[in-house]
Design a protein that fits this description.
4 copies of one chain form a homotetramer. By secondary structure, chain A is α+β, with helices and mostly antiparallel strands. Chain A is built from 2 helices and 16 strands. In chain A, the strands form 4 sheets. Chain A has a 6-stranded antiparallel sheet with strand order 2-4-5-14-8-11. In chain A, strands 12-7-15-16 form a 4-stranded antiparallel sheet. The longest helix of chain A is centred in the C-terminal third of the chain and has 32 residues. In chain A, 42% of the residues are buried. At the A-B interface, strand 1, strand 4, strand 8, strand 10 and strand 11 of A face strand 1, strand 4, strand 8, strand 10 and strand 11 of B.
Chain lengths: 177, 177, 177, 177
């Protein structure tokens, strides 16, 4: 018997924003991975895009749908260049094999997106640089979450040590009195 | 040659809210259909759910993913009853065949959802009442849009007639002066 | 971490043919379930259809693809009636929501089919009778396999008992000699 | 309104076998493209694989299902090497991201396969060489069909010319008589 997939829920605002790889984007884009569907090869994420940030050239190997919840996003060159300029709240369907030479954010923006299949980041001439699908997305997010947990633990330990070894300020003040 | 699917963009806030059928929901839920993908049988919509509204009992024939952008949504009975209580901004993945006996909105809410396959609205004992998939969704939305266009045209015509036949108020006022 | 789906292999000719429910077909159709993909709601099976057999009226809730490996199959009324008449080796793509009022086999036939989403068996007027998706298919096949295993075990036990209690034939023959 | 996908039927044995690119396979593999589903990024084909032929190293970017209708196929190294050795009639499900370093046919074989998403042919170290999805498959098949139609037309014309210009053999024979 093959088991059914499992429902899951993510409190989006409780998840931390993590840096999206600088090799795939510029301007400080951050992300939260919300779900992966390995059987289909689908994944879902939300992105925080500062003013002036952009995603590098890529192809959507399968279809993708986005909901722009904040700001403005220029897709496939934006409306001025034959593409779409999305303004919050905007919805877009990008077909299989859509090539996005530059996805640019002229103002601070946020969008949620469902991907079927991977993104293939490419050179100008179409040569593949990197493939980012559900597996790579989950591996990256998982590593980022572990790192963050370690950092949080270390901070907590340092805070404890600091408390123990710090001079008795209040007592000192009292002594002076 | 079979043609590729076409990209499309919807300015969500420019679309009107339309009533979601009262046979499938209570409390005045409204919706906007954003996309249909007939080949896969997928569709995407956004729902406006007043405080106290709910969707009738249904099964997700395929998987579904939602982003709760405003308010609170109790899925599969909510957290207190073994389900999920989503609070904005919340993301949920509902697996294939998920049965939702009642999806309830304790406060005014809004959510965006991608459906693969139809919703099957059912009786308490599982007997099917109605199937709402991409085709039914598109047919309903299309009818609602035509109706609205006709109403808008009629309103415009009535406004014009009113203007032509209305007494020359300003002139009258002037005459009195 | 959500695990990837698992590869699997089925030696088709080693699997037994099991009766396909008589409520959904006539003429002795048999089947072998080969795979289910719960996350997508997909499933794959092969059917053995005696001369004169047919499937009852149904709708393909999602797209389906078949390979007719033996015989002849009349889909959507067959070629004479606006549908397709497939002759081995024939391939067919049936779109989402395709309604098959009668799928008929004028000669002994066999076909392999991939389904995305369930089949919805319906009355003449479209009223739903039964939904057969990956979950129902897996439940049925699983029950049929258990039943068969029990029967095989019982047969083996009876055979053993028979062997133990049967008179020593050879010895008897020898005694005569 | 977005139109539904269209049903289609292919008489498999009436289609010609075409060479599968020698850059992606060795030993004279031939194929017939049966269907493409651009919206999902799916495609379906049947392959004729001579004894000793093989496919080059590739990754299935999405899941794939095959039916081996003739012969034997060693997938992921075959059973001896942790993979599967399929023997006709065999069915296999290959999960998303399955890496096939060598798919080898020890005897003349034929298999039918459904692909969701592209195949990514790769170097030993994983570097991508070529992506073959529905679009590339359709482009290749379409070019092969045009080429074949031109060749057939040319042959027909040459045959006609040959007929017209050839010496009146029978008459000659008669003359001799």
């Amino acid at each position: 018997m093959i088991e059914n997939a499992t429902a899951n829920y993510v409190q989006v605002n409780d998840q931390p924003w993590m840096p999206f790889p600088a090799t795939l984007s510029t301007g400080g884009i951050r992300w939260k991975l919300l779900h992966v569907s390995p059987e289909m090869g689908a994944w879902t994420a939300i992105f925080d895009c500062p003013k002036g940030s952009s995603f590098n050239r890529h192809i959507h190997v399968g279809p993708g749908e986005y909901l722009l919840t904040r700001g403005r996003m220029e897709v496939r060159g934006g409306t001025d260049d034959g593409g779409s300029t999305a303004t919050s709240m905007g919805y877009g369907y990008e077909a299989c094999n859509a090539r996005h030479d530059k996805t640019y954010f002229p103002v601070a923006s946020e969008f949620y997106m469902n991907f079927l299949g991977p993104l293939q980041f490419i050179e100008d001439d179409g040569q593949p640089i990197a493939v980012v699908g559900w597996a790579q997305a989950q591996a990256l997010w998982s590593a980022q979450m572990s790192e963050q947990a370690k950092t949080a633990k270390k901070s907590a330990r340092l805070a404890k040590v600091a408390k123990v070894t710090s001079p008795p300020k209040v007592a000192g003040k009292k002594a002076r009195a």
